[in-house]
Amino acid sequence: MLEQTKTILWRILAVISLILGVIGAFLPIMPTVPFVLVAAWAGGQGWPELERYLLNHPRYGQHIRQWRENGAVSRKAKCFAVFMMSCSSIMLWFSPAPLWSKWAVSLTMAAVAIWLVLRPEPVSSNQV
Asked: Following CA atoms 68, 71, 77, 82 in sequence, which dihedral angle do they give, to the nearest 10 degrees?
């Protein structure tokens, strides 16, 4: 019974992460790839078929494998992520959000951008 509950919880986490990743593909303030990475990880814990599907996915599979092998992120993905975070931060400053939240979100995105830029790049010449 406990094992079934753990499997169900891992699957729920994988599905929620995948849904958030899909939403993030359309909302500039929300990321996609971290949620897909979490979905693959959670799938590996309780849904091997989903993990296998994500690892073999034509668009995301290579990125997931590169991340798992050495925490690598392609230069193109880094540039796109930093660009989107910058756009989101700029849009946030024109919103009616409280000043403290504008600073908090902008500084958080800046910290994530710095961390991301410092990640290694894939060693293969085939960077996507």
From this structure: 140
Instruction: Tell me which residue of 94, 92, 128 sits closest to 109, measured CA to CA.
Output: 92
Q: What is the separation of C-alpha 16 from the centre of its chain, rounded to a whole number of angstroms?
A: 13
How far is 100 from 115, CA to CA, in rounded Å? Answer: 22
**Is there a contact between 39 and 14 (Cβ–Cβ < 8 Å)?**
yes
Report the predicted TM-score, pTM, of the whole model to 2 decimal places.
Answer: 0.72
Question: How many other C-beta atoms are found inside a 10 Å radius of the C-beta of residue 72?
Answer: 18
**Could you identify the residue written with the tokens 């359309």?**
26
Q: pLDDT per residue over 72-123, tens digit each?
A: 998 988 998 899 889 889 999 999 999 999 999 999 999 999 999 999 998 8
76: amino acid identity, one letter:
K
User: Residue 71: which residues within 8 A CB-CB, separation 6 or more?
Assistant: 119, 120
Asked whether 26 and 35 are in contact (CB, 8 A), the reply is no
More confident residue, 31 or 53: 53
- Output the CA–CA distances (angstroms, integers) from residue 123 to 3, 83, 128, in the order listed: 39, 23, 12
